[in-house]
Amino acid sequence: MLTKKQIASKISGVKSRNATLRQDIQTILNNIAGHAFQHGDVTQYDDLLSAVVGQDRHAIVRWMGEYGFATLDTETAKAKVQKKARKTADFEHGEAVTKWLGENATPWWEMVASKAQVANDLDAAASVKALAKRIAKAPENGRGVLVKDTQLDEAMAELQKVLDAARARQHNAAKEAEEQEGVTPSDAGMFC
């Protein structure tokens, strides 16, 4: 077992490597945005999102939408160019985009949800799985499972109804974000 001093040293190393990794990802994002502006090519966002296992992909996607001339297509889960933002942005070339982003853009890691926000969000799938696990383990723990068909059918229908509503809200929020691709960068405060 490591001593507390050894653990503290390892934590310090993780902190340092994490800062370097975050900055590397930011440099990559800035440069992909330059290519997105100049060439309309957003494919490397997909490569980056595949490579950043363990990082906050939601924050990276938020950054792409706000600064990177791209959104994540809700159907294909692939990066999609924001054509209007690209067309209306006031840059001479991709290098100017990259330079501007390096000097002005909010770093992607500052777009991460706080621990409080994450703790507050309800993961519907995890909640349903936890309930299923509790029901499955009840007999092992000496507890009976009451199954009243009519009430269970009503409860399942109610669960499906609220899940469908949550899915619709999530889909509508993603759709609104996609539709905002029609907002010009200066209107959105992206490149002021």
Structural write-up:
It is a single chain. This protein has eight helices and two strands, in the order H-H-H-E-E-H-H-H-H-H. Helices cover 65% and strands 3% of the residues. The protein has a two-stranded antiparallel sheet. It has two domains: 10-119, no CATH class; 122-182, no CATH class. Strand 1 and strand 2 (79-81) form a beta hairpin. The protein is flat and about 70 Å long. It is mainly α and 192 residues long. The chain has helices at 4-39, 43-51, 57-67, 83-88, 94-104, 115-120, 124-137, 149-179; strands spanning 70-72, 79-81.
Number of helices: 8
Proportion in helices: 55-70%
What shape does the CA trace take?
flat
Low-confidence stretches: 181-192
Oligomeric state as shown: single chain
Using only C-alpha atoms, the radius of gyration works out to: 22 Å
* Beta-strand content estimate: under 5%
Secondary structure category: mainly alpha
N-to-C CA distance:
53 Å
Q: What would the average pLDDT be, to the nearest integer?
A: 85
Could you give the count of β-strands?
A: 2
The secondary-structure element order is HHHEEHHHHH
Major sheet characteristics: 2 strands, antiparallel
How many domains comprise the coordinates? 2
Strand order of the largest sheet: 1-2
Can I get a quick summary?
With 192 residues, this protein is mainly alpha-helical.
Strand-helix topology:
Elements lengths: L3 H36 L3 H9 L5 H11 L2 E3 L6 E3 L1 H6 L5 H11 L10 H6 L3 H14 L11 H31 L13
Antiparallel strand pairs: 1-2
Helix pairs in contact: 1-5
Can you tag this structure with a few keywords?
mainly alpha; single chain; 8 helices; 192 residues; two-stranded antiparallel sheet; 65% helix
